[in-house]
Amino acid sequence: MGRKWANIKDKKAAKEQTTSKVNAKFGLELYVAAKQGDPDPSTNRKLHAVIERAKTYNVPKHIIDRAIEKAKGSSDETYAELRYEGFGPSGAMIIVDTLTNNVNRTAAEVRSAFNKNGGNMGVSGAVAYMFDNTAMFAFEGKEADAIFELLLENDIEIRDVATEGSQVIVYAEPEDFHKVQTVLKADGVEEFTVAETEMIAQNELSLSADDLVMFEKLIDALDELEDVQKIHHNVSFE
C-alpha cells in the first residue's frame, strides 16, 4: 500500500497550494457534518473525523469554528452527499465524492468534466467494487512494529502497518477510525500527516506518458468543481 500513501501525500501537497479552495471545501464538509448530527465533535464522530482531516491540511481554527457555529443556526440549507464513478484514459478508475445543494448541476458538471477530458462517467457501482474503504493514518516518531502490537493489544483489526521514509502508515477498518486515532494519541502521537478515510484501489494502474498527462487534466478538471470534495483513483504516479 506504500504507493497509495505516496499518491495521497502528493495530493495533499498540491491542495495545500490552493489554501482558499481547501478552506472552502472543508468549511462546507464541516457544516454538513455538524448539521447532520450534534455540533459537538466529542459526541459526533463524523464531525470529529472531518476536523482531524482539516488539521492535516492546515485549515485554520477560525474556519473550523465558523462552520460549526453556522450549523448551530436556523439555516434550512441542505446538502446531499453523492458519489459518481467513471473511467479515464486506458480504463483508469475514478470515484468522485461530492456535497451539493443542486444535484442536477453537480451531475452535469461532473459528466462534462469526464467527457471533455478523455473520460466517461459510469453507473453507480461501476468501479467502487475495485476499491476498499480504508482508515489511513500517517505520522512520525514511532516504530511500525510497536504500533502494530499496540493496536492489536487494543483489539483493533489492522489491515497493514508500513514505513515510508520517516513516516509510519496505518491502514485500518473505516469503522475503527476514531478508535485507532484515540489509541495513537494516547501513545503520544501529537500530529498526523494524514488522517483520512480513503477508497484504496485493490490494483493500481500505470499509464503511458501521454495518457498520464490526459489523466491529470481530467483529475484537475474534476477537482476544480465547487461541489467536489474528494477524488479517488487507481492510477500510480511512480
TrEMBL record:
- Alphabetized Pfam families for the sequence: TACO1_YebC_N, Transcrip_reg
Residue ranges occupied by any TACO1/YebC-like second and third domain in the UniProt entry? 79-235
Any single GO molecular-function term of the entry would be: DNA binding
Indicate the transmembrane segments per the record: none
Q: List, alphabetically, the InterPro entries matched.
A: Integrase-like_N, TACO1_YebC-like_2nd/3rd_dom, TACO1_YebC_N, Transcrip_reg_TACO1-like, Transcrip_reg_TACO1-like_dom3, YebC-like
Q: Which GO terms describe its cellular component?
A: cytosol
List residues of the TACO1/YebC-like N-terminal domain: 3-73
Gene Ontology biological process terms, A to Z: regulation of DNA-templated transcription
Highest taxon above the source species: Bacteria
Alphabetized, the UniProt keywords read: Cytoplasm, DNA-binding, Transcription, Transcription regulation
Which compartments does it reside in? Answer: Cytoplasm
Q: Which PANTHER family match?
A: TRANSLATIONAL ACTIVATOR OF CYTOCHROME C OXIDASE 1
Q: Report the sequence similarity comment from the record.
A: Belongs to the TACO1 family.
Q: NCBIfam families from the xrefs?
A: PRK12378.1, YebC/PmpR family DNA-binding transcriptional regulator
What protein is this chain from?
A: Probable transcriptional regulatory protein BCAMP_10215
